[in-house]
Design goal:
The protein is of the alpha/beta class and about 260 residues long. The protein has helices at about 25-35, 85-95, 110-125, 150-160, 175-195, 230-235, 240-245, 250-260; strands at about 5, 10-20, 60-65, 70-80, 100-105, 135-140, 165. The model is unreliable at about 215-235 (pLDDT under 50).
Length: about 260
């Protein structure tokens, strides 16, 4: 699930690359990693079997463009392709904000593609999410192979929800970043619909009149505090601010507590 850090002005979202084994999920993340500037990427972590299949997950935090006053940080994961690691698939999928389904375009992989897509839908349903209502992009990988199936045939078999789809070659990087941009746009749009992304305040027109100052009610936070006399400060009880303030600012914090009281 996405998180908003108001102090850092940052929104963190999680995108999961799902699909059958050896469809190109890990290769896709590696190509994204190579394409992103070092200043905008984190360390890529991978746990794999001896056969170079993803056993747990790949994680790649990537910063993208700003949304309003907030920057967006993507955490990219892949799930293991093997069916017998379904418990790990569920764990990685939990808290996701969007999914890229990476399919193998070869005819012999269609059974695995369908099985993995059905598994994705089932796992999302267990999390209380319907796939048709979830940000989803389909990535038809291995388009460079002569045996690759036509896109209309892949679309008919794997895309009943009419999600955006892209032809890719993960080894060369063709179409990989276009896929990432598409899922990022869908995720941000979904977060805005859910009111997760803060809406920036409307800008005041340049010719609009400046509102008049209203009379202050109670303690004016904008007015500097007068430093209290040391004797008075020692006699007053410690309030919340004073108790949490460093020693050099205790007198100021006591004054704030007194004024608030």
């Amino acid at each position: 699930m996405s998180s908003v850090n108001v102090m850092a002005r940052e929104i963190a979202v999680k995108i999961v690359f799902y699909g059958p084994g050896l469809s190109g999920k890990t290769t896709t993340l590696r190509k994204i990693y190579e394409s992103v500037r070092p200043a905008n990427r984190g360390e890529m972590m991978s746990l794999a079997t001896e056969g170079d299949r993803t056993l747990f997950f790949d994680f790649l935090p990537v910063k993208v463009e700003r949304v309003g006053d907030f920057s967006v940080r993507l955490a990219l994961y892949t799930v293991p392709g093997q069916v017998f690691y379904n418990a790990t698939r569920k764990l990685v999928l939990q808290g996701g904000d969007g999914v890229v389904f990476v399919s193998d375009s070869q005819p012999e992989a269609m059974t695995s593609n369908r099985e993995s897509l059905r598994n994705l839908e089932e796992n999302l349903e267990e999390l209380g999410i319907r796939l048709r209502e979830f940000p989803l992009v389909l990535q038809y990988n291995k388009r460079d192979l002569p045996s690759a199936l036509p896109v209309p045939e892949l679309h008919a078999a794997l895309n009943p929800h009419e999600a955006p789809e892209f032809e890719t070659c993960a080894t060369s990087g063709r179409g990989v970043l276009d896929t990432l941009k598409a899922i990022t746009r869908l995720v941000i749009k979904d977060l805005q619909r859910k009111k997760v992304v803060p809406t920036p305040p409307p800008k005041r027109p340049a010719d609009a009149p400046v509102p008049e100052d209203r009379p202050s009610r109670g303690f004016d936070l904008a007015r500097p505090l007068a430093r209290p006399a040391p004797a008075l400060a020692r006699e007053s009880k410690l309030g919340l601010s004073a108790a949490m303030a460093p020693a050099a600012l205790v007198d100021w914090a006591r004054a704030a507590d007194d004024a608030w009281t």
